[in-house]
């Protein structure tokens, strides 16, 4: 599907206007966010691979142009420009799976203003959605303390595309598998699933349903035990079938509980399974779970659960379903000179960071733990042996000025497009997931906790701060 028409009308209206007024102006836009969902401290970036594909394939079909012409808003010259559209600019971005903090540029696009204005809606819809779900998955997998999370959300997602790319993002954020076969096929990730209650109900008895399933899938036998009565029917019937499987030389996987008091039922089911000799049979819990319920089940109730299947609360990020990433003009290039731009607001926290920028992550030389990020102007250079003067990126911080010294560092952005050509090869989803896990290990533990995480310091260089002050009009 051609996604170029997934845009807001005003994007094309502005581009049409640029062509008639400032046709040679070049623009630079940043994608960033100000607030972390669920009161967390960071967002896990995702969606870059889809963003690259969208920009590389950005074009307008004959039917698109005919529709736009019918609106009687655009000049013939502009429609001809759309007919032959080809991105000629540059893009840099933070790789997928990277934890990113408020106000840091996730993605920067530079090119003719008439071109880069057109990407706003499409890029935001991709980056905001996938980063939101990856971030939620990170929270859920953190709560599970290493227990596998199966993404089960397709039927609750806001449409097939959200189901497919949301599951991809969930894997990036730490999920072990997905029930969505299209996601598993497209991105070569593990698929998983048991059965629905309809399978049980379709047979004369629960035992008959279990026996037939074991006959069909002897090496993939995970049984749903809560259709009728977990303790008095489901688990005893599962134990009988597991016994038959073992006699035939197969090892049962376990049971799934999808309703009721899961902690209570899991404890009794564990006792029943162990008493029957099935200590290795796993217990999977599902049923509208999220990080809060998982943490309660494991920490407060000590429920003996081995895996979790998470659906609607993950695929929709139900507790906080919006990542409000924005696409802001930060500079124009006029007559060959870069002119920084700024959005000023009565709310200081909404004032943007002007100019073309870089983001660095700083590390303690002894522990190799990340201790701060610094946003600088693109032409600034920092070195590990220097002392740098910085200000907090959060304008509401009471302590604004700091000095940083004696650190290791790395730049977070990488080049994606150069002169309109893709120069970056996206890693596989499994590789992105591994990179995400590695990046998360670098962060302080207190910044990763689910409730009241400690604020991770993000600074702006003194040069960037002075430029912002100058554009705001601060003396």
From TrEMBL:
It catalyses: 5-phospho-alpha-D-ribose 1-diphosphate + nicotinate + ATP + H2O = nicotinate beta-D-ribonucleotide + ADP + phosphate + diphosphate. It holds the Pfam family NAPRTase_C. GO terms for molecular function: nicotinamide phosphoribosyltransferase activity; nicotinate phosphoribosyltransferase activity. Keywords: Glycosyltransferase, Ligase, Phosphoprotein, Pyridine nucleotide biosynthesis, Transferase. This is Nicotinate phosphoribosyltransferase. Residues 149-352 form the Nicotinate/nicotinamide phosphoribosyltransferase domain. Transiently phosphorylated on a His residue during the reaction cycle. Phosphorylation strongly increases the affinity for substrates and increases the rate of nicotinate D-ribonucleotide production. Dephosphorylation regenerates the low-affinity form of the enzyme, leading to product release. It is an enzyme of class 6 (ligase). Belongs to the NAPRTase family. The keyword Transferase applies. The keyword Methyltransferase does not apply. Catalyzes the first step in the biosynthesis of NAD from nicotinic acid, the ATP-dependent synthesis of beta-nicotinate D-ribonucleotide from nicotinate and 5-phospho-D-ribose 1-phosphate. Residues 357-468 form the Nicotinate phosphoribosyltransferase C-terminal domain. Residues 5-128 form the Nicotinate phosphoribosyltransferase N-terminal domain. Pathway: Cofactor biosynthesis; NAD(+) biosynthesis; nicotinate D-ribonucleotide from nicotinate: step 1/1. It comes from Oenococcus kitaharae DSM 17330. Its EC number is 6.3.4.21. It comes from the Bacteria. One of its GO terms (biological process) is NAD+ biosynthetic process via the salvage pathway. GO terms for cellular component: cytosol.
């Amino acid at each position: 599907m051609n996604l170029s028409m997934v845009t807001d009308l005003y994007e094309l209206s502005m581009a049409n206007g640029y062509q008639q007024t400032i046709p040679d102006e070049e623009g630079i836009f940043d994608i960033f966010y100000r607030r972390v969902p669920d009161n967390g401290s960071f967002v896990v970036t995702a969606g870059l691979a889809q963003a690259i594909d969208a920009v590389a394939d950005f074009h307008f079909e004959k039917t698109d142009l005919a529709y736009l012409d019918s609106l009687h808003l655009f000049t013939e010259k502009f429609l001809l420009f759309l007919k032959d559209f080809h991105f000629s600019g540059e893009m840099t971005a933070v790789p997928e799976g990277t934890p990113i903090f408020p106000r840091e540029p996730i993605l920067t696009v530079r090119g003719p203003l008439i071109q880069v204005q057109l990407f706003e809606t499409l890029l935001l819809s991709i980056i905001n959605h996938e980063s939101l779900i990856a971030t939620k998955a990170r929270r859920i997998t953190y709560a599970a303390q290493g227990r596998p999370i199966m993404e089960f959300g397709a039927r609750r997602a806001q449409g097939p595309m959200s189901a497919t790319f949301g599951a991809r993002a969930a894997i990036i954020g730490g999920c072990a598998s997905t029930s969505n076969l299209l996601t598993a096929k497209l991105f070569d990730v593990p698929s998983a699933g048991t059965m629905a209650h309809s399978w049980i109900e379709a047979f004369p008895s629960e035992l008959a349903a279990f026996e037939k399933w074991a006959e069909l899938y002897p090496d993939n036998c995970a049984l749903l035990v809560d259709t009728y009565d977990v303790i008095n029917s489901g688990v005893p019937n599962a134990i009988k079938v597991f016994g038959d499987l073992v006699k035939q030389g197969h090892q049962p996987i376990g049971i799934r509980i999808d309703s009721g008091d899961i902690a209570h039922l899991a404890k009794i089911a564990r006792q029943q399974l162990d008493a029957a000799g099935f200590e290795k049979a796993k217990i999977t819990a599902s049923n509208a779970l999220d990080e809060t319920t998982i943490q309660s089940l494991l920490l407060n109730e000590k429920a003996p659960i081995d895996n979790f299947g998470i659906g609607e609360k993950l695929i929709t990020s139900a507790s906080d379903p919006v990542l409000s990433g924005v696409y802001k003009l930060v500079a124009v290039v006029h007559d060959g000179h870069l002119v920084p731009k700024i959005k000023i607001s009565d709310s200081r926290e909404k004032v943007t960071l002007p100019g073309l920028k870089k983001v660095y992550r700083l590390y303690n030389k002894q522990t190799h733990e990340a201790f701060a990020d610094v946003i600088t102007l693109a032409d600034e250079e920092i070195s590990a042996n220097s002392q740098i003067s910085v200000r907090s990126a959060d304008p509401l911080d009471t302590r604004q000025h700091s000095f940083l010294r004696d650190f290791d560092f790395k730049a977070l952005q990488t080049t994606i497009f150069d002169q309109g050509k893709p120069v970056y090869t996206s890693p596989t989803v499994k590789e992105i997931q591994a990179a995400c896990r590695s990046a998360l290990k670098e962060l302080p533990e207190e910044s990763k906790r689910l409730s009241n995480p400690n604020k991770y310091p993000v600074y702006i260089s003194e040069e960037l701060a002075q430029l912002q002050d100058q554009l705001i009009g601060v003396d």
